[in-house]
Write a structure and sequence with these properties.
- The complex is a heterodimer of chains A (107) and B (118).
- Chain A is mainly beta.
- Chain A has a single domain, classed as Sandwich (Immunoglobulin-like), CATH 2.60.40.
- Chain A is 0% helix and 53% strand.
- Chain A contains no helices and 11 strands.
- Chain A has strands spanning 4-7, 10-13, 19-25, 33-38, 45-49, 53-54, 62-67, 70-75, 85-92, 95-98, 102-106.
- In chain A, the strands form 2 sheets. In chain A, strands 2, 4, 5, 6, 9, 10 and 11 form a 7-stranded mixed sheet that branches.
- In chain A, strand 5 and strand 6 form a beta hairpin.
- Chain A is globular and about 40 Å long.
- The N and C termini of chain A lie far apart (36 Å).
- In chain B, strand 5 and strand 6 (58-60) form a beta hairpin.
- Chain B is built from no helices and 11 strands.
- Chain B is mostly beta strands and 118 residues long.
- Chain B has strands spanning 3-6, 10-12, 18-25, 34-39, 45-51, 58-60, 68-73, 78-83, 92-98, 107-108, 112-116.
- Classes of the chains: A mainly beta (107), B mainly beta (118).
- Chain A binds chain B through residues 1, 32, 34, 36, 38, 43-46, 49-50, 53, 55, 87, 89, 91, 94-101, and chain B through 35, 37, 44-47, 50, 59, 61-62, 95, 97, 100-101, 103-106, 108-111.
- Chain A: InterPro entries: Ig-like_dom, Ig-like_dom_sf, Ig-like_fold, Ig_sub, Ig_V-set, IgV_Light_Chain.
Chain lengths: 107, 118
């Protein structure tokens, strides 16, 4: 199985900060990567799919980039509603795996 | 609007089985597959598997092979996930999810808490 390593595991930031989260795959997954946001007690929400495609209705301050084994999720200007946990998810050979998550906390 | 409504919380003893349902509405059920994802208390997300609502084809996570079965009933637009030989570490919130750009999903059920305890 492909392993996904997210970093950092926790991130402290302030409103207005530019935030970057990294996800590394144990082998190449082309662009088969998604990013989800999850708030406590809620189901995850799809933000980005196929590495860089913004899901409909998601604010444009969210962007994704990368291919192969290294990917990033960037929030250009952190908003109060963005404090949450973020997960990457890869797809390869009919199997999917989530990264361990990155909790974005208020500094 | 798309809705996925899951069955209620369950408490099971170790060794038992649980079957969680997920009723879809607001879209043509056979147009999308259903993924199942679980989350143990305070832990991250774990993909369990996927079933095609069109033809019933399945893909399961390797660690759950042999213990999990996913099915659908197109007459009621309902998906099911059965997990057998339950252990304490199967205690989790179980989500069904669908829609979106395959294989990534953008509609999620509300989650079903399954507690495994003697």
């Amino acid at each position: 199985d492909i392993q996904m390593t997210q970093s950092p595991s926790t991130l402290s930031a302030s409103v207005g900060d530019r935030v970057t989260i990294t996800c590394r795959a144990s082998q190449s997954i082309s662009s088969w990567l998604a990013w989800y946001q999850q708030k406590p007690g809620k189901a995850p929400k799809l933000l980005i799919y196929k590495a860089s495609s913004l899901e409909s209705g998601v604010p444009s301050r969210f962007s994704g980039s990368g291919s192969g084994t290294e990917f990033t999720l960037t929030i250009s200007s952190l908003q109060p509603d963005d404090f949450a946990t973020y997960y990457c998810q890869q797809y390869n050979s009919y199997s999917l795996t989530f990264g361990g998550g990155t909790k974005v906390e208020i500094k | 609007q798309v809705q996925l409504v899951q069955s209620g919380a369950e408490v099971k003893k170790p060794g038992a089985s649980v079957k969680v349902s997920c009723k879809a509405s607001g879209y043509t059920f056979t147009s999308y597959g259903i993924s199942w994802v679980r989350q143990a208390p305070g832990q991250g997300l774990e993909w369990m598997g996927w079933i095609s609502a069109y033809n019933g084809n399945t893909n399961y996570a390797q660690k759950l092979q042999g213990r999990v079965t996913m099915t659908t009933d197109t007459s009621t637009s309902t998906a099911y996930m059965e997990l057998r030989s339950l252990r304490s570490d199967d205690t989790a919130v179980y989500y069904c999810a669908s829609g979106g750009s395959y294989p990534f999903v953008n509609y999620w059920g509300q989650g079903t808490l399954v507690t495994v305890s003697s």
